[in-house]
């Protein structure tokens, strides 16, 4: 039962009607950074489908050895980066 509760917790979100204040954003970011620092000795890399763009070389951490192949596919099928979003494959340099 605990496993189901944890798995569902990530989808239990209430969206605000307004954008949060800069102070609220800063407080949330500080909390996240403290949490990441606390867990750093016990975890590395990234969690599937939750890219952390603050990770050094986040694309390599997320896509691993597939990154170079995926970049070639991206360049061939989306050279103008039309399908760009936070988790999209970056174009080759």
Task: Offer a few descriptive terms.
93 residues, mainly alpha, 4 helices, extended, disordered N terminus
Walk me through what this model shows:
This protein has 93 residues and is mainly α. It has a domain at 49-93. It has helices at residues 2-9, 22-39, 58-63, 67-77. 2% of the residues are buried. Residues 1-6 have low confidence and may be disordered.
Short description:
With 93 residues, the protein is mainly alpha-helical. It has helices spanning 2-9, 22-39, 58-63, 67-77.
Helical residue percent band? 40-55%
Q: Major sheet: size, sense and barrel closure?
A: none
- Mean pLDDT equals 81
Q: Give the number of helices.
A: 4
Number of E strands: 0
As residue ranges, the low-confidence spans are: 1-6
The N- to C-terminal Cα distance equals 47 Å
Helix-strand makeup class: mainly alpha
Topology:
Blueprint: H1 2-9, H2 22-39, H3 58-63, H4 67-77
